Amino acid sequence: MRIDILTLFPEMFEGVFSQSILKRAVAKGHLELHTHDIRDYTKDKHRKVDDYPFGGGAGMVMMVQPIADCIAKLKSERNYDAVLFMAPDGHTFNQSKANELSLFENIIILCGHYKGVDERVRELFVTEEISIGDYVLSGGEIAAMAVVDAIARVIPGVLNDETSALSDSFQDGLLSPPVYTRPADYEGHVVPEILLSGNERLIKDWKLEQQLARTKARRPDLYEKIVGKQDNN
Ligand code: ADE
Description:
The protein has helices at residues 12-17, 20-27, 64-77, 95-101, 119-124, 141-152, 163-166, 200-218, 220-232; strands at 2-7, 32-37, 50-51, 61-62, 82-92, 106-111, 128-131, 185-186, 189-190. The chain is of the alpha/beta class. The chain folds into two domains: 2-152, SPOUT methyltransferase, trefoil knot domain (Alpha/beta knot); 172-232, Trp Operon Repressor, Chain A. Adenine binds next to strand 5.
């Protein structure tokens, strides 16, 4: 899979893309990540990429031309399955969206800044608008990093133990159970005995119970979706 990111701050991605799972996904050839500085595409002699909003209002608006030219160049080189725009007023990102996007061959992610981007960018080029939550970030970059990371970890082969992405919270609609490692007794705080029992069946049952209890307590909305109907009967 190839992801092209359009941003005014390409350096922001360097650290995140060169560590951990994303680094491994790229090194193993499962993922290609390219950042493009939108400023490189401006035709303005002062390298401007934004301007005052028509009709007044606070903040600057990113102009169509540099973004349009960058997208046109990329599209002349390959076909894209989606052009995502990171925006707080987009659809809220979740695990099933990450799974769905991970099946695509090539995607573009556009990061907005300032007070927004000219609406015509959204109308002409964007196929999907994605928010990572109901709060406003200074720009789409941090949101794009979250989306890229969530996509990368579900691309088959990226994680060493392929089952570990499948057992992530949300993959089955439930939160993950608690996990423990050595020592079994940390200053009197002991690991649940069942995990030391070696009885695989009992451990599996215990994990599911924990998942259900956690999901019910912390995310009643998810719990309702999974077991609410059975509970009500
Ligand atoms: N840009 C600014 N805030 C954002 C958010 N919550 N999600 C996605 N992109 C954003």
